[in-house]
Amino acid sequence: MEEKIEQLKAQAAEAIKNAAGNLSELDDIRVKFLGKKGEFTTILRGMGALAKEDRPKVGKIVNEAKAEIAQLIQQKNEELKAREMQQRLERE
Asked: Residue 20 pLDDT > 80, yes or no?
């Protein structure tokens, strides 16, 4: 389970890094990984199948991964907005 979480985190980070340059693509990534039907939410919902003693550990790992991804999305969002503003200023 931990390996799957790390793979998802790496996929999300790669997708965020490669987000072309529009905010809608970044929002799609956020929904895919962090949304109500996202990858990490699916893992959290499936935790009932885990042994009781493993649930807190897996939950903590998922929540930390979600926080990291949310932070990466926020940074990329700010970067894209700054780039967009710079382009507007250059055009004017």
From this structure: no
CA dihedral of residues 10, 11, 14, 16 (deg, nearest 10): -110
Q: Provide CB contacts within 8 A for 41, sequence distance 6+.
A: 34, 35
pTM: 0.85
pLDDT score of 24 more than 90 = no
- Per-residue HEC secondary structure of 30-66 comes to HHHHHCCCCHHHHHHHHHHHCCCCCHHHHHHHHHHHH
Residue 14 · residue 6 · CB < 8 Å: no
